[in-house]
Amino acid sequence: MTRTVNPRSRSAHDALARGLGWFSIGLGLAEILAPRALCRALGLEGREALVQAYGAREVATGAAILMSHDPTPWIWGRVAGDALDLATLATGFEGDNPRAGSLALATAAVAGVTLADIVCVQGLTADKRLPPPGRYEYHHRSGFPGGLAAAHGAARDFAVPRDFRIPDALRPWRDGRPAA
Asked: Is 120 a member of any domain?
């Protein structure tokens, strides 16, 4: 059984995209199922509904990455979501937050994942680019499936039937003049 595989699906960037998709689902489920605990740990009490909404976004984006034949737009969605997450985390540094250390650690983690998202989306975009013109090398190709040596004498056994005649309608010339 022969299996056709998209050559781009073997790239390291596709593997990273799949990993980021699974990460999104895991993070999103944590945000949906335990928003109160996350907000308490980061000193962001009162933002539980927002964290749950972010969790739903993460799960949807992760599922889209895993189901898509081209995860590039969905990774861009992750980058935009990361910017939103970083902006929300930044609001926790205002005032006197007793959990500022945990918040700083979470902010650094989100920044690191944002960097991974950016590397991934740039790699996926580069994987789709064609090589520059004139870089194709065809000098070793003959155009024959078995190579040029196999083509020599291939028509030797071909016999034209003796009663073969080109129909008049297909003859463009008659007696040295164009057919009417």
From this structure: yes
Is residue 16's pLDDT more than 90? yes
The pTM score is 0.67
Does 70 score more than 90 pLDDT?
yes
Residue 158 lies in a domain: no
Q: What is the pLDDT of residue 81?
A: 96
| Exposed/middle/buried for residue 121 (C-beta within 10 Å: 0-12, 13-18, 19+) | buried
The DSSP secondary structure of 98-161, one letter per residue, reads TTHHHHHHHHHHHHHHHHHHHHHHHHHHHHHSPPPTT----TT--SSTT-HHHHTTTTTT----
Which residues span the domain enclosing 109? 10-128
